[in-house]
């Protein structure tokens, strides 16, 4: 089950940025630091559930339509790609703060065994993507008899 580790992309850069900001704040204590722009990366949160029948991957993709999501299974790696676009039409007033994240994302997961490729399924409803990967009949452990000479 340890093979089901998600590819987190550039998430660690945010941690490094926070640590660096903390160092600068302590060094220049009391001085006013410039408010640097922060790049927010959109990366959907994922739950992975394995049963005897299938592996189920549930991803939060709010604001995306089904046609904006691309799924691919290459070998034993499932990849979920998409792009969340920022659409704004301003007629009056101005924004002082925008906290919605947007951008493209890609998450990849290595599957622990064979899946039945003829029965793969994905459903998108209310901002939740559910990918069902049924286990293959061939996926069970194989016994190999050791013969003496």
Write the layout of secondary structure elements.
Elements: H1 11-27, E1 46-50, E2 54-60, E3 69-74, E4 77-84, E5 103-110, E6 121-125, E7 128-134
Give an overview of the whole structure:
- This protein has one helix at residues 11-27, and strands spanning 46-50, 54-60, 69-74, 77-84, 103-110, 121-125, 128-134.
- It has 149 residues and is mainly β.
- It has a domain at 42-88 and 100-137: Immunoglobulin-like (Sandwich).
- The radius of gyration is 22 Å and the shape is flat.
- The two termini are 37 Å apart.
- The mean pLDDT is 77.
State the distance separating the first and last CA atoms.
37 Å
* Helical coverage, percent range: 10-25%
CATH architecture grouping of the domain at 42-88 and 100-137: Sandwich
Q: How many strands in all?
A: 7
| Average pLDDT level | 77
| Topology as a string of helices (H) and strands (E) | HEEEEEEE
**Which structural category do the helix and sheet elements fall into?**
mainly beta
CATH topology of the domain at 42-88 and 100-137: Immunoglobulin-like
Question: What's the overall geometry?
Answer: flat
Q: Please, how many helices?
A: 1
CATH class bucket of the domain at 42-88 and 100-137: Mainly Beta
Low-confidence stretches: none
Percent strand equals: 25-35%
